[in-house]
Design a protein that fits this description.
Blueprint (H helix, E strand, L loop, with lengths): L1 E8 L2 E7 L4 E6 L13 E3 L3 H14 L16 H11 L7 E2 H12 L6 H9 L12 E2 L12 H13 L15
Helix pairs in contact: 3-4
Length: 178
């Protein structure tokens, strides 16, 4: 059984899924790959893990870095898992590139190199947006390449994180990625 919860964010509806104990998915409603891990058998229900995730999202959209992570569970390949572990380590308000992640994976695996495009595929298929912060990955030139939730949302999320202010208070978004 898959359980679902709906959260109203400043950027639109979010659907969260759970096994009952861990978060298994978190998507902006309608985003690319929406519900990729949802089974046909779903039930909307209040669960402690959803309350914890709601608290995390409230803190996050308030412009602050949550000091906890709800329990997560992802069905993935070992490569995807390695990429998503690196994403979890990107600090609030900072970014990295697909190339840097590829270099880190190559180093971990003892390889000469790793494809940044392969990393991009794993980043793009992250089923737990925001908490596993795929929006913090940018192109080598700092461009806002791709985001399953849309590049406009990515720009707003990064601007909120850089400013440390609630998303609702940011009116003129100027983004400088370093």
């Amino acid at each position: 059984m898959t359980y679902v919860y709906h959260y109203d964010s400043p950027l639109g509806g979010i659907t969260v899924s759970s096994s009952g104990r861990e978060i298994t998915g978190l998507w902006f409603d309608g985003q690319k790959y929406f519900g990729s891990v949802l089974s046909g058998d779903r039930e909307e229900m209040s669960l402690p893990v959803f309350e914890e995730t709601k608290r995390w999202l409230d803190i996050y959209f308030g412009g602050k870095a949550p000091d906890f992570t709800p329990p997560l569970s992802t069905a993935s390949t070992s490569f995807q898992q390695a990429v998503w572990e690196i994403l979890l380590a990107i600090p609030f308000g900072q970014t990295t590139t697909y190339g840097r992640i590829a270099a880190r994976i190559a180093e971990q695996k003892g390889l000469k190199s790793m494809s940044a495009q392969a990393v991009g595929g794993a980043v793009g298929h992250n089923p737990i947006s925001l908490i596993i912060p795929c929006h913090r990955v940018v192109g080598a030139d700092g461009s806002l390449t791709g985001y399953a939730g849309g590049t406009d949302k990515k720009k707003q999320l990064l601007a909120m994180e850089k400013s440390g202010r609630p998303l609702s208070s940011i009116t003129n978004i100027k983004l400088l990625i370093v």
